[in-house]
Design goal:
With 428 residues, the chain is α/β, with parallel strands linked by helices. It contains 15 helices and twelve strands. Helix 2 runs antiparallel to helix 4 (117-128), helix 4 (117-128) runs antiparallel to helix 14 and helix 6 (152-162) runs antiparallel to helix 8 (204-211). The radius of gyration is 21 Å and the shape is globular.
Length: 428
């Protein structure tokens, strides 16, 4: 089991926290089934999941395939995604998936198998995003009387799902961004920070509700935490997509921060030694291929035009897609410059159309269509971003996304087995 750390007592590095360690042990995890700390490894493994509302079904489909391959290759039917990744980051709907993959059940294992994620979306999305009035009536409601949805069902199901689980109790190192609308700055929740700062050890349900609070769609979320002295800290949060719709770089820099702070969880590498990282970044799709708007048309829009146009919200779509793509370009250039481009895999679909591209259309037809999009994406060639145009193009040096995920699965299994062997050799 990964060691559990809290703030050090003046030594500059973290020390083992017996209370948190005991809490983890009480959940029943064992070294044969739990994740292994990267301190025993040779690479740092990162999983990142974009925001995108109901389009979370697309990465859900990808993750189900990957977990199935991990189980086959490692010959462990109970293997879970969290057993193989050192850091799992997610924004908005990706944050909810992150919680599903890492929150502990009563046996101390991940709450959800990856194959069950889509069942959650298929069952609950129609209640999270129920049908609302369309046309001018629906537009007027969204502009003058609050967000499109009241969020009550989302809040209730997330609280029921996660209960009293706190960020520090996640089975793996998680990174979930939000944005504090009062302070006008990003607020990032992570297991590392929660173990060192009690005021950041929020209920995981509060974090998931916050990172999903997309402007115009769902209400912002306010809550408080208390530090060890009983002082309260207030959070006024909205969707993490405002800060990092694609949290890949956030996850990587979070590892670097922990190394700089002297974390004993990592093997001794330089904080920016990204050639030792292996990163899987999952998008939720976009409607780039539609080319729906142009500058001449947008030049005529006022506030309402940017908030609602042809069934879309251009201002939100623009900043979330820009955020995601810039991160992909940065990460791709970084790994290519380090001659480690095979250790970075971005899976994204840029050809969604109509309702498929929405974040909230929850008809049975559209949800099932998104499942098909995810399955079809597995068969498509693996792509990499063209650093000149910013567009995803097939990578001639790679096979399909399915092929690449199998290759990643083999590397993940090999890394985990090597860590287990090293842990065994170092056991007194």
């Amino acid at each position: 089991m990964a060691p559990v750390y809290a703030a050090g007592s003046g030594s500059g590095g973290p020390t083992l926290n017996p209370l948190l360690a005991q809490r983890a042990l009480s959940r029943g995890a064992s070294s044969s089934t739990a994740s292994t700390p990267p301190a025993y490894g040779s690479i740092v493994t990162v999983l990142s999941i974009d925001g995108g509302g109901v389009r979370g079904i697309i990465p859900g489909t990808i993750l189900a395939f990957l977990e199935e391959k991990l189980q086959e290759i490692d010959e462990r039917p109970d293997a879970r995604i969290a057993d193989y990744f050192d850091v799992i980051a997610g924004t908005s709907t990706g944050g909810l998936v992150t919680a599903m993959l890492t929150a502990p059940n009563d046996e101390g294992r991940p709450l959800f198998a990856a194959k069950d994620i889509n069942d959650f979306y298929l069952e609950h999305s129609p209640k999270i995003f129920p049908p609302v009035c369309g046309g001018l009536v629906g537009l007027a409601k969204g502009v003058f009387s609050g967000p499109k949805y009241d969020g009550k069902y989302l809040h209730s199901i997330v609280r029921e799902l996660l209960g009293e689980t706190r960020v520090s109790q996640a089975l793996q190192n998680i990174v979930i961004p939000t944005f504090d609308i009062k302070l006008l700055q990003p607020t990032v929740f992570s297991r590392y920070d929660a173990m060192n700062d009690v005021s950041k050890d929020a209920l995981l349900s509060d974090v998931c509700i916050s990172t999903s609070a997309a402007p115009t769609y769902l209400p912002g979320h306010q809550f408080e935490t208390a530090d060890k002295d009983g002082n309260t800290r207030a959070f006024n949060l909205i969707d993490g997509g405002v800060a990092a719709n694609n949290p890949t770089l956030l996850a990587m820099t979070h590892v670097s921060k922990q190394i700089l702070l002297g974390s004993q969880d990592f093997f001794p590498i330089k904080p920016a030694d990204y050639g030792r990282f292996m990163v899987l970044s999952l998008g939720t799709g976009s409607a780039k291929a539609e080319e729906k708007f142009d500058a001449v048309e947008a030049g005529k829009w006022g506030l309402l035009g940017w908030l609602y146009n042809q069934g879309a919200t251009p201002i939100i779509d623009s900043f979330s897609q820009a955020s995601s793509d810039l991160v992909d370009i940065h990460a791709s250039v970084l790994f290519q410059a380090l001659h480690s481009d095979k250790q970075y895999l971005r899976i994204q679909h840029d050809e969604l159309k109509g309702d498929e591209a929405s974040v909230d259309v929850s008809t049975e037809e559209n949800l099932n269509r998104l499942v098909d999009v995810g399955k079809g994406l597995l068969k498509k060639p693996a792509c990499k971003v063209n650093v000149e145009t910013g567009k995803n193009e097939p990578d001639a040096n790679r096979g399909t996304n399915e092929d690449e995920l199998i290759r990643f699965a083999k590397m993940l299994v090999k890394e985990r087995r090597a860590r287990l062997q090293k842990m065994g050799n170092n056991t007194p």
